[in-house]
Amino acid sequence: MIANNCMHLGGAVDAEAAEKAARFLQLCDAFELPILSLTDTPGFMVGPASDAQAAVRRMSSFFVSYASVTVPIIAIILRKGYGLGAMAMTGGSFLTPVYTAAWPTGEFGGMGLEGAVKLGYKKELAAVEDEVRRQALFDELLAKMYEVGKASEAAAHLEIDGVIDPADTRQVILKAINSAPPSTRTHGQRRNFVDTW
Q: 107 in helix, strand or coil?
C-alpha cells in the first residue's frame, strides 16, 4: 500500500517521497504483491527548493517504476486527485489500475482548483477592475470548477470506475484484487533488480 499523508505537505509528493515510492513499487513487483494506492494529493511539490532536491529525476523514477510493474494496481481516491502527483500515485493514469474508485469526497483536476482558476481565467479576472466584483467572479468560477471536479462527474465521464461508500472500501479492494488478472511478465520471470537506496 502506498498513500499520501495529508498531514505532511498537504499530501503533496516531494522528491524524497517519489524516490521512496519508486523503490517500494519495485519491491512489490519483485515479490508479486498487488499494489493499493490510497490517493489524496494536491500534486507534486514544485518550486526552487524542490528543484534543488533533483525533483525531476526523482519524480520521473516514480513514473518509470510504476509503468514497469506487472502486478495488479488498485487505486482509491480519498479526497484530492490533482495533477501529475495523482497520476503518479495511480500508475500514470486513472485508467491504469485494474480498478479506480473514489470516495464521495473525491476531487479531480489538472492542478489545485484555486490555482487553476487563477491561471486559466487570468485575463477574465484582470478585466474586472472592482476588487469585490473580481472576488465574486473568482468565487463563481471556483464553484464551477469544484462542481465539474466532483468524483461523481469523474465517474460519469469514465475517468474512474466508480464512487464508493467509504464503509465499503475494504470489500471493494478485496473484490478488485480477487478479480484482477494474473501478473503479466514480459520476460517470463520476476523482476530481478531493485534500485539501491
A: strand
- Measured from the Cβ of residue 116, the count of other Cβ atoms closer than 10 Å reads 18
Q: What is the pTM of this model?
A: 0.79
Do 92 and 67 meet the contact criterion of CB atoms below 8 Å apart?
yes
Q: Is 63 in the same domain as 132?
A: no
DSSP-based helix, strand, coil % in the chain, nearest 5: 50, 15, 35
Please state the rounded mean pLDDT for residues 101-126.
85
For the chain, count helices (H), then strands (E): 9, 6
Whole-angstrom Cα distance, residue 70 to residue 129?
A: 55
Given a cut of 90, is residue 176 above it in pLDDT?
yes
Residue 50 lies inside a defined structural domain of this protein:
yes
Which residue in 96, 95, 91 sits closest to 66, CA to CA? Answer: 91
- Structural domain that includes position 136: 112-149
pLDDT at 155 > cutoff 90: no
Distance CA 12, CA 5 (A): 8
